[in-house]
Specification:
By secondary structure, this protein is mainly α. 70% of the residues lie in helices and 0% in strands. InterPro entries: Homeodomain-like_sf, HTH-type_Tx_Regulator, HTH_TetR, Tet_transcr_reg_TetR-rel_C_sf. Keywords: DNA-binding, Repressor.
Length: 208
């Protein structure tokens, strides 16, 4: 099978993007140490010199993927911040939209998600950062009158990150739930709890 050599311009950007995508898949499937540059370039149908044209090393590719995941997830976490003036009836839908966006990101970027949330040495630190962002958003929402101000929002924020992490693996990536379905379930539990007679708990799925 013929291998492509150096590319310039738009072709070069396409080659770089392809190498990045294949590297993500290889890392997610085999782990960092078992992933080889030779396997990446073979699947991309380029030469090793082409690889080194774009990336200094295997570590450089992995770190770029870590940064890409961190940047996108942080952006999505920021977007969960609630605007002022949302009526109570629309609140579950607005919260659900933010969660759905995060879960869709994991659905559409499975390899990247596995790297950033599970394989990266800094995965624990990243989860703490995301939890702090969510906590800040929850505190702002409480000050805006949406939630109780005397609740420990760090517990809620860390709980949400834990739910996203576990449900992504057990429900989302197994195909048992879609991103929107999971978001509805999470919002229902967080806002209304598990009590059968809790007002709104049964109707929430119709509103999201």
């Amino acid at each position: 099978m013929a291998q492509r050599g150096r590319k310039k311009g738009s072709d070069g950007e396409a080659s770089r993007a392809l190498l990045l995508k294949i590297a993500a898949d290889e890392f997610a499937e085999n782990g960092y140490h078992e992933t080889k540059i030779s396997d990446i370039v073979k699947k991309a149908e380029v030469t090793q010199p082409t690889f080194y044209l774009y990336f200094k090393s295997k570590r450089a590719v992995f770190e770029e993927l870590e940064d890409l995941f961190r940047s996108k997830l942080s952006e999505l976490a920021n977007d969960t911040r609630l605007d002022t003036g949302i009526d109570e009836e629309s609140l579950p839908e607005r919260i659900g939209d933010g969660l759905s966006a995060i879960l869709r990101f994991f659905t559409q970027n499975r390899s990247l998600g596995r790297i950033g949330f599970f394989l990266s040495p800094s995965a624990g630190q990243l989860k703490e950062q995301i939890a702090r962002k969510i906590e800040e958003n929850l505190l702002a929402a409480a000050n805006a009158g949406y939630f109780h101000v005397n609740f420990d929002m760090s517990i809620a924020a860390n709980g949400l990150v834990g739910m996203i992490e576990q449900l992504t693996v057990s429900k989302l990536w197994t195909g048992q739930r879609s991103a929107d379905e999971l978001a509805k379930d999470i919002v229902s539990i967080v806002l209304y709890g598990l009590k059968k007679d809790c007002a709104g708990s049964e109707a929430i799925t119709d509103k999201l």
